[in-house]
Amino acid sequence: MRFIITKQIIENIVSSMQPFLEKKDASSITSHIYLEVNNDKLILKATDYEIGLESQIDELNESVNGKATVNGANLLGILKRLKASEIIIESNENNLVIKQNKSTFKLPMYDPNEFPSLAKPDNLNKLDISMLNLINSIRKITPAIDNNNPKFELNGALVDIKSNRINFVATDTRRLAVSHLQNISNSENQFIIPKKAIIEIQKLFLDDANISYDDTNLIISNDKMKFFTKLINGKFPDYDRIIPKSLKHNFSLPKDMLIESIKLVTSLFSNIKITFSSNCIIFESLDEDSESKTQIDINLNIENNFYLAVNAKYLLDFLSLTKNENVAIGFNESNLPFYLEDEKFFTIVMPIVLEK
């Protein structure tokens, strides 16, 4: 195998493949990237068995068919140090050789025939939504996906395809985030995408792509790239029962004013209390060792004061992902979960319970 390529082109692809490599065991073949030259095209693959990426490069200046593997982290380390010009990459016995001008590097190879094949299931279900809509929907709920929860289904995002809408759902047990799209033609179904895959999808795909899935895999592909992830095999919590059927109070409040007030009182401590009265909203830190307090004068037309106590991060996560000038905040009572909404996106937050 041999090919000549512009350094920046291959560096970008190898860099995008780093999250798909086995990190803990450098002796594993899944710590390697697979390279194959076939008819003037270069195919690169990386997988840790749970998630994988295949990319194709057509911009080869000169090539000889063949295949190889190389440790992906070491290859990227070399590419970053090279100059922005052409490089030669070729296999030589059990080594991959990288050359540029008078510089030469040799990295050991494994048998490319032993590299695991990426998922290619048959009879996939097509998810008929645009890539842009998918990215926008999962981006809103990503902060609410849990990390390393023993209930492994919470370490991913649920795609819940209902008859008239598609819900994208995540919870870390302190909050529930839901974004939704109209369902035009997809059959009812649901599956859970791991958090790592959710994050990588947002980095990789900017243009339209084909989205398909079965009971165990999700595959997203376009002309140059194919991504796959194993799905989480588990039952997501019944999130519908957490969504309040009615709200006693529902206000539309200016987003920028909320963000400014929350940030003012959380410079030292993230837990805050927000008190709502007929003519103002008071924000104060729950830090026992210091005092931070600010106020918004606004007419809410309510008879009795009530409050919510919360980790401000949950509010700021929501507000940072909204696009309108105003957001809706709904409550029933102090110390009960409250509701935040902006168009096709809402979050329900569990409060910090304070003694009344």
Please provide a written account of the structure.
It is a single chain. The chain is of the alpha+beta class and 356 residues long. The protein folds into three domains: 2-114, DNA Polymerase III, Chain A, domain 2; 125-216 and 227-241, Roll (DNA Polymerase III, Chain A, domain 2), CATH 3.10.150; 245-349, DNA Polymerase III, Chain A, domain 2. The protein has six helices and 25 strands. An eight-stranded antiparallel beta sheet has the order 6-2-3-4-17-16-15-10. An eight-stranded antiparallel beta sheet has the order 14-11-12-13-25-24-23-18. A hairpin with a 3-residue loop joins strand 11 and strand 12 (165-171). Helix 1 (7-16) runs antiparallel to helix 2 and helix 5 runs antiparallel to helix 6. It is elongated. GO terms for molecular function: 3'-5' exonuclease activity; DNA binding; DNA-directed DNA polymerase activity. Residues 241-344 form the DNA polymerase III beta sliding clamp C-terminal domain. This is Beta sliding clamp.
In CATH, the topology of the largest domain is named DNA Polymerase III, Chain A, domain 2
- Please summarize the sheet with the most strands: 8 strands, antiparallel
Helix content: 10-25%
N- to C-terminal distance: 73 Å
- Radius of gyration, in Å, reads 25 Å
Structural class: alpha+beta
Strands across the major sheet, in which order?
6-2-3-4-17-16-15-10
Count structural domains: 3
The CATH superfamily of the largest domain is DNA Polymerase III, subunit A, domain 2
Could you say what the CATH architecture of the largest domain is?
Answer: Roll
Q: Total number of β-strand segments?
A: 25
Overall morphology: elongated
Number of helices: 6
- Whole-number mean pLDDT: 95
- Strand percent estimate: 35-45%
CATH class of the largest domain reads Alpha Beta
User: Uncertain regions: pLDDT < 50 for 5+ in a row?
Assistant: none
